[in-house]
Amino acid sequence: MKEKIDQMIDSLKDDLISELREVIKIPSKKGKATSDAPYGEACKKVLEKIIEITGKKGFATKNVDNHMAYCSIGEGDDYVCAMGHLDVVDEMPGWKYPPFAGEIHENRMYSRGALDNKGPIMAAFYGLYALKKLGVNFNKEFRIVFGSDEESGMADLKYYLTKEKPPIMGFSPDNKFPAIYGERARAKVALRGDFDHFEDFLNKKIFAGDPIINLGINISDQDFGRMILRGKKIFRDKDEYGIEFSLSMPICDKDYVLKQIEENALGLKVSLISYEKAFLEDKNSALVRILNDAYNDFVGANEKPTTTTGMTYAHFCPNIIPFGPSFPGQNGIAHLPNEWMDIDDLIKCAKIYAYAFYKINENFNKGE
């Protein structure tokens, strides 16, 4: 089957690129909400476009009130899915090519959304489409779910889960390979006070040595590793001075972390601005095993499942994990000017996703 998938995806390459460009040309940044466009007209338009594209290829489609949309094949009470997003962040200045044109230069497609996440979710769709063309008999319903508010809080997914039950298995092509079985907790913390205390804190706790050790939060675990502090931002609010920073956290007690920061705040007031708990799947689960084995088998690797500092739909949708599109050793460029995706990687992802869907389907054939 690997050879058949390889040949089929290669035959669909031009169509994939062409239709990805159609989706990319819609500047689907979050806009003003209206009664039928909860994230703005551009986000509504991109969902309508994806329904048009997938419907023409013989898939059943559904628009979930312009929050998310999906196409599907196969039948059953439960479904498997790939879930990605079609909304994008602002293009930012500094582009050498138009940010919503999908131009290809030196075998790279440059555009906002090329990598995050229009390219990868279209690759997942074409992976499923390739299996359809190969005549695979699907033993469950298989969906490709397209979101439109991932970049701004994932309200689209939260709405979707009030209208549709969650999948029993699936992935989000919005991070890296191989299988990702966990995403760290995240916290944003602020400390503020008068200038003297603020200056003392910066000099002794932030700029002198390792802030993680200085703040008493040098915590690690076996899945995520060590606490990470980043995104430092200094501010002034009337007569108070302060600093905000983000923590990328292993599994630990949030309240203990805050207490440790308070004990090392040198007179500053500490406040928790936001917090998202960690997502952690059993790394020996069937889902992690099937996806990781599919990746290794298709590319001839021996990678182990891993975790990430990123946050995808998998953080809030049961029974899915991040899976691609970036390969080991590649650096993240998703939100930067001149975002791009290598065409060879796009096609390779489509093949891996097709094979992953095939192996999931085989798993159900065995009654597992």
UniProtKB/TrEMBL annotation:
Keyword Lipid biosynthesis: no
Enzyme Commission number, as recorded: 3.4.13.-
Cofactor requirements of the protein: Zn(2+)
Gene Ontology molecular function, alphabetical: dipeptidase activity
Keyword terms: Dipeptidase, Hydrolase, Metalloprotease, Protease, Zinc
One Pfam short name: Peptidase_M20
The protein's enzyme class: hydrolase
Similarity field: Belongs to the peptidase M20A family.
NCBIfam families found in the cross-reference section: dipeptidaselike
Protein name stated in the entry: Sapep family Mn(2+)-dependent dipeptidase
Source species: Anaerococcus murdochii
Taxonomy of the source species: Bacteria, Bacillati, Bacillota, Tissierellia, Tissierellales
